[in-house]
Amino acid sequence: MKINKLILLFVTTLFLGSCSNDEQGSTIESEVETPVTVKASFSYTISATDPYVAIFQNTTESSFQYQSLWDYGLGEGKVNVGSGLVEVRYNEVGNYTVKFYAVYNGVTTEESKTIKVDENGICPNGLCGSTSSTSLKDAATTFAVGNITRSSWVIGSGKYIELLKNEFNSLTSEYEMKMNVMYPAQGSYNFSAADAIVSFAQANDMYVHGHALIWHNATPSWVENFSGTDAEFEAMVKAYITTTVTRYKGKVRSWDVVNEALEDGSGNPLRKSVFKQKMGDDYIKKCFQFARDADPDVLLFYNDYNMASSATKRAAMFTLVDELGDLIDGVGAQMHISYNGPSASQIKNLADGVISRNLKLHFAELDIRANPNNDLTVLSNDRAKAQSAKYKEVVQIYNSIPLENKFALTVWGVRDNESWLIDFWGNADWPLLFDSNYNKKLSYYGFLGGLQ
Ligand code: G3I
């Protein structure tokens, strides 16, 4: 009975508007006006392309002109952002109290909600652990997803190794499986770094893509200044390739036998490397033969850049590839590209040429410059979205090629701040999938979206 009374009192109070009771309990109707208040209300959804981004919406229902203020729980206090949807990224794991205020006629109302963020992003309905975070390698069911590494990075533990094992299933040595590191002095090999990378990969069920046996930019000086005859030079190269490929037989799935043999200039002739000069124009075929003789099962690739953006260089590459006959298994297109090019059709032309030759295609060194014209000092949300869309486009194109032509899609770096591009171009850029704190960027979700 008592409860009913309570409810009745509550309903009565509401019905009669403002009333008060004197000590005797009788009700006295008062003339006092109850100030109109605007009841603050908001909702949010989680971004479809970035689970760390909340999209906030003011859902306050009122015909009165009120002021709205947000506090996103990021320590920035109240901000006035006007109307419309607002996207906010929560980079760190944790709980954030978000408040929305409606101010009218001197009266402020607020609504407060807690946003919980775990390693998968914003927890739907505050239920953490309920999101199924697919990793890149798990989402790519028909080809390997690779990244580069260094021997110093695969020792011990930490966020890099955890992320590398979780997201990728193929490794390319960024520089330690090149001739200048593995063969620093004549007759004296140094495979310690390569061994560390290969051992780590084997222990973690990851492929290794050997990069690169012959590259004019990673040729030790003793080779550049070789003092013997051309025949002795060729014998040295044969011994180096045979020794290296034999050492990693059954451990390294594939090798870039030759990297960047073509000039960028008109006609894209062969570079005048010491290998061309001392072994002749057919040095590439000879090197492929040395590798094939050392390991009949290893996949052999030719690797180069601007394969999508330059039709002439692509044509020169296919001429080179056609001359190798069945010695070659695949083409590595480095894919150091930008958010605004090359176009999808240019990339598809590259893929079509490889497919028509029944070769494997490796997008071998993918990174996507967000700041090719150096017009940004920070990665804007718009540019991040454009970069994410480009990653999605590239991955979709790769994911659409026939199964028999699939091999791997390798990203050339984990964290933006470690990208070779920054030193190479000398300006700020954010070309990769993770930021400097190992947080997934929009580009990560673009890559993942290309796999759906
Ligand atoms: O890590 C060592 C450091 O311990 C040492 O103090 C320092 C001084 O010599 O060298 C550091 O290693 C450098 C390494 O990058 C890591 O920064 C090597 O000297 C340097 O040669 C190496 O450069 C690599 C370059 O190829 C040459 O091998 C870049 O990391 C790598 O991103 C770049 O990758 C190439 C691909 O192989 C082919 N396609 C183009 C691409 C970009 O140039």
Automatic annotation (TrEMBL):
GO molecular function annotations of the record: endo-1,4-beta-xylanase activity
Pfam families: Glyco_hydro_10
The enzyme's E.C. designation: 3.2.1.8
InterPro entries: GH, GH10, GH10_dom
Enzyme class, first EC level, given as a word: hydrolase
PROSITE patterns named among the record's database cross-references: GH10_2, PROKAR_LIPOPROTEIN
Origin: domain of life: Bacteria
Keyword annotations from UniProtKB, A to Z: Carbohydrate metabolism, Glycosidase, Hydrolase, Polysaccharide degradation, Signal, Xylan degradation
Residue ranges occupied by any GH10 domain in the UniProt entry: 130-450
Annotated TM spans: none
SUPFAM superfamilies linked: (Trans)glycosidases (SSF51445)
Range of residues in the leader sequence: 1-20
Catalysis: reaction(s): Endohydrolysis of (1->4)-beta-D-xylosidic linkages in xylans
Any GO BP annotation: xylan catabolic process
Family under the similarity heading: Belongs to the glycosyl hydrolase 10 (cellulase F) family.
Annotated protein name in UniProt: Beta-xylanase
Species the sequence originates in: Gelidibacter salicanalis
Lineage: Bacteria, Pseudomonadati, Bacteroidota, Flavobacteriia, Flavobacteriales
